Amino acid sequence: MKALVADAINEKGIENLKEVCDVVVDTSITPEELLETIGEYDAILIRSRTKLPAEVIEKADNLKIIARAGVGVDNVDVNAATKKGIMVVNAPESTSITVAEHTMGLILSTIRKIAIADKSTKAGKWEKKAFMGMELRNKTLGVIGMGRIGSQVVNRCKAFEMDAIAYDPYLPPEVAKNMGVELYEDIEDVLTRADIITIHVPLTPETEHSISTEQFKMMKDTALIFNCARGGVIDEDALYEALVNGEILGAGLDVYEKEPATNNKLFELDNIVCTPHIAASTKEAQRDAAIIVANEVITLFKGGMPKNIINMPRMNNSEFEETNDYLELCEKLGSFITQATSSPINKLEITYKGEINKLPSKDLFTRTILQGILNPVTETAVNAVNATTVAKARGISITEAVSDDSEGYDTLIKVAAKTKEGQMSAEGTYLHEAKIIKVNGYWVDVKPEGNMFIAKYKDIPGSIGAIGTKFGEENINIGIMQVGRDSTGGEAIMILTLDERPSKEAVKKIKDLDNVSDATCLKL
Ligand code: NAD
């Protein structure tokens, strides 16, 4: 086996690797040289300098694994690698401590006015009175997103004798309890109570601008907010207003809506501390990333399965051909059900009906459904390999059943999800394309694609019109409308495809309509 180390990664990782294979270290290799030589290697270890576009991957005939010593894989054409059956692994856990520590740095720097006091002191001023600070002890930390990084921030804040509360709708309450964190179901409860608010969620349609004018207004005027996650979660215009108008006391940012952030109006303000997206940049994180990915390569070379695979595992071609269409359906069903249920799923029942039961790969289908369920709600890149592990860690129990009765279709896949608020189910089939044909037992016929909207309402005259009118008022065109009901005047369900995503306010207005009991937007 032969591995190429194409970027400067920590020596310890390279040493480990040398014990199991030939290692070529060429950290100044050019794209042209890489194109010529990539065919010789079984593994390539990179950071962000080396780019692996489709044309390089196309020539990588012996390559089994691409190991990115870090988190982001923007420099790798992951789809091309997946198609060629090459694993792409990364080291997501390598930066958790580092980012948590940086968050602490921003918190302390802001609450004790260290950054601004540093500037003043070095300018020869001695402004002791100008820099009155506050203690962290007995303050309440409010964490939005209790994943790898959020939970490490909690650990550190506990050492400062702080109380911790959190909002993370996908975290099982027992996990939060074990961490000594009070979990709230409504973000508003955290935002109104916390003294220090820290954001650790992925950037998704749900989290984008989830901290905006309305949220700043509900915070204490002594609150401080920090974002070391992704720019765009906080609405920067609203943050600027909140800081200028004294709606909150201060803020700390490592990430921005537009990066590099060289001309941001927030930089004019004294009550914000800013760093240039460096929360993950420490020697230790780089060392750990190198060791983690070198160990992944070693595991694979020794016949094991790496744990941080972010794409599909290698499958033989005939297996892939047979299952491919159903994999698309499975992912869509998972993504549909997770977005259509507004609280965390704790139980999943999957039923395979009809012809699909002749295929050997039901485990892969279940994993792909989980992939669809988990990917919209976690930063972890969930794939067929890690889906079950991630689901278990989130407390989702899974049962599978088979049935001969496919109700007139060749194949049906039913996914029923239980949350503490109730149950939701979707059934789909593949007829030249993935189709959802039943929702909560009501027959519909809809292609799960693009912007969708689902509402439960009372089946009485005027209900459908009232919803349609709201979209008309928002100037949003409805592409397809499907409705189903249990009985005349009973509960009914509506599924729409929309030409664009409605605003949160627009969805709320529909939810507030008299005969509507639930309304949700989905992106498939
Ligand atoms: P993670 O996947 O371990 O945790 C994310 C958590 O957010 C999960 O527990 C998930 O359930 C929760 N979540 C998802 N949607 C939510 C919502 N709408 N409301 C509340 N919670 C929600 O990810 P992580 O490794 O902890 O990373 C957290 C963030 O930090 C990510 O955005 C990541 O990209 C970012 N990050 C930034 C840097 C940096 O350099 N600044 C470095 C590493 C990671």
Automatic annotation (TrEMBL):
Q: Which Pfam families match?
A: 2-Hacid_dh, 2-Hacid_dh_C, ACT, PGDH_inter
Q: Which domain of life is it from?
A: Archaea
Question: Iron: present as a keyword of the record?
Answer: no
Q: Which family does it belong to?
A: Belongs to the D-isomer specific 2-hydroxyacid dehydrogenase family.
Q: Tell me what organism the protein belongs to.
A: Methanobrevibacter ruminantium (strain ATCC 35063 / DSM 1093 / JCM 13430 / OCM 146 / M1) (Methanobacterium ruminantium)
Q: Which keywords belong to this entry?
A: Amino-acid biosynthesis, NAD, Oxidoreductase, Serine biosynthesis
- MF annotations from Gene Ontology: NAD binding; phosphoglycerate dehydrogenase activity
Instruction: Please verify whether the record's keywords include Transmembrane.
Output: no
GO annotation terms (biological process): L-serine biosynthetic process
In Swiss-Prot or TrEMBL terms, this protein is called: D-3-phosphoglycerate dehydrogenase
- Pathway named in the protein's UniProt entry: Amino-acid biosynthesis; L-serine biosynthesis; L-serine from 3-phospho-D-glycerate: step 1/3
